[in-house]
């Protein structure tokens, strides 16, 4: 895990470069911890759950996230347990970049990451701590089956915000989730809600659906019980917001004039300004996650989901470090320094390589009869094989591949480089 976090900071084209024989690419802080072969072996056999306990497809108990289910459940539990969010929280979509084979792969052209696995997320709008999430596995999954004709957006918000009911939190979301029934439902549970809304939603004021405004700063407001609908014109776009927190005031905006024109001043509803400042908690959490995220490549979708959970855990840990205990720290470490401190602590001086202690005397070379072990040309069709000693010494080609030799030992039957001294070193000859 320490190596993976270090790779997130030290970005190279592929993982083989960290063990490269070129000094421009080789990273001793990673290469000295373990050999590349051991890293590949650990990566190959790494699993998070027992595959034999997976229910067959088509059965009601089948779980598409079975391979990573233990870590998902653990992460959801500890994220809520160790942090109490501020009043303003936001619901949004977090995309996990992946473009391989996956039954619930999503394509969202409006997102910076267009292809990937989608996760619904709930984040703090002030600190950007991700407090809850739910991976979307498609309309056939556990969170996609229509129950009592409730829209998917309503079910997502209700499930994520449920642990924070009756605490006077204020939830922000975009027009995919916003509906009159959702805002009313949250208000009955003592939870404020604000979101942009589409004009065709049921329950909105009839004049709002056909309203057309031309001048910047022009606005209309409608009140119904605890809810308020607001339409506001800014330049060439019209913004429609639905909220259950009735703040009826306005603020003044100032825009510089063009080509010598005087400064423009017009009003903006405080409700829309509050939404602008607090709706992007999930996007900010994604931004922090991608700064030093684990960027390895794999063919398995569940490994990308595992790396996503690791990156979110690191970001959340950094936020906890800054804010507690005892309140915000006066001079906390930067995100980068915190990331490096955690990564180096996980490595903690570990090494799987066998090395001689610095105080020990070097072993004397054993002189063997050269006639017993002789170097000869490889007579196979290909004429070359991988040298057995170069990988042990950490020598590879510039591309990170194993070095090949056209010579082999007559008695041992192993390929050894003749010009690099591998034959003498392997047989412990004195050079």
Describe, in short, the structure shown:
The protein has 431 residues and is α+β, with helices and mostly antiparallel strands.
Describe what this molecule looks like in 3D.
The protein is an alpha+beta fold and 431 residues long. Helix content is 28%, strand content 19%. The chain is built from twelve helices and 15 strands. The chain has helices at 2-9, 28-31, 36-44, 69-81, 152-161, 180-188, 206-209, 270-278, 281-291, 301-323, 335-347, 422-427; strands at 88-97, 106-107, 115-124, 130-135, 170-173, 192-196, 219-224, 227-234, 237-243, 250-255, 264-269, 375-377, 385-386, 404-405, 407-409. Strands 1, 2, 3, 4, 5, 6, 7, 8 and 9 form a nine-stranded mixed sheet that branches. The protein has a two-stranded antiparallel sheet with strand order 10-11. Helix 6 (180-188) links the parallel strand 5 and strand 6 (192-196).
Properties at a glance:
alpha+beta; 12 helices; nine-stranded mixed β-sheet; 431 residues; two-stranded antiparallel ribbon; 28% helix
* Rg over C-alpha atoms, rounded to the nearest angstrom: 30 Å
Mean pLDDT: 86
- SSE succession: HHHHEEEEHEHEHEEEEEHHHHEEEEH
Strand content: 15-25%
The major sheet is characterized as: 9 strands, mixed
How many angstroms does the end-to-end distance come to?
41 Å
Q: Oligomeric status of the shown chains?
A: single chain
**Backbone structural class:** alpha+beta
Helical segment count = 12
SS elements, strand count: 15
List low-confidence stretches.
Answer: none
Helical content band: 25-40%
Shape: elongated
């Amino acid at each position: 895990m320490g190596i993976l976090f270090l790779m997130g900071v030290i970005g190279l084209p592929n993982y083989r470069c960290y063990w490269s024989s070129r000094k421009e690419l080789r990273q001793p802080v990673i290469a000295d911890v373990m050999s590349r072969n051991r890293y590949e072996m650990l990566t190959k056999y790494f699993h998070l759950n027992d595959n034999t306990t997976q229910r067959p497809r088509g059965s009601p108990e089948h779980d598409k996230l079975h391979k990573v289910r233990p870590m998902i459940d653990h992460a959801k539990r500890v994220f809520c347990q160790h942090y109490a969010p501020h009043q303003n929280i936001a619901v949004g979509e977090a995309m996990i970049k992946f473009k391989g084979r996956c039954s619930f792969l999503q394509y969202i052209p409006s997102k910076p990451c267009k292809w990937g696995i989608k996760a619904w997320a709930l984040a703090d709008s002030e600190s950007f701590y991700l407090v809850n999430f739910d991976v979307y596995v498609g309309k056939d999954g556990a969170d996609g089956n229509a129950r009592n004709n409730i829209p998917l957006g309503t079910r997502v918000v209700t499930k994520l915000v449920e642990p924070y009911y009756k605490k006077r939190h204020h939830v922000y979301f975009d027009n995919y989730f916003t509906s009159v029934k959702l805002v009313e439902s949250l208000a009955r549970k003592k939870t404020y809600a604000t979101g942009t809304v589409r004009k065709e939603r049921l329950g909105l004021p009839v004049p709002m659906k056909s309203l057309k405004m031309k001048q910047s700063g022009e606005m209309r407001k409608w009140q119904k019980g605890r809810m308020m609908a607001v339409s506001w014109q800014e330049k060439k776009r019209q913004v429609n917001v639905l909220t259950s927190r009735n703040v009826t005031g306005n603020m003044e905006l100032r825009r510089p004039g063009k080509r010598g024109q005087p400064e423009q001043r017009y009003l903006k509803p405080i409700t829309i300004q509050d939404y602008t400042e607090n709706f992007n908690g999930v996007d900010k959490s994604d931004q922090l996650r991608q700064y030093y995220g684990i960027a390895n490549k794999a063919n398995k979708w569940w490994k990308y989901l595992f790396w996503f959970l690791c990156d979110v855990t690191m970001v959340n840990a950094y936020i906890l470090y800054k804010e507690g205990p005892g309140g915000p720290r006066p001079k906390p470490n930067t995100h980068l320094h915190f990331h490096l401190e955690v990564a180096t602590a996980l490595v903690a001086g570990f090494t799987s390589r066998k090395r001689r202690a610095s105080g020990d005397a070097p072993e004397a070379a054993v002189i063997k009869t050269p006639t017993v072990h002789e170097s000869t040309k490889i007579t196979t069709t290909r004429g070359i094989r991988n040298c057995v000693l170069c990988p042990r010494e950490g020598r590879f080609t510039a591309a990170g591949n194993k070095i090949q030799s056209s010579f082999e030992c007559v008695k041992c039957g192993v390929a050894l480089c003749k010009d690099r001294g591998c034959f003498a070193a392997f047989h412990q000859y004195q050079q």
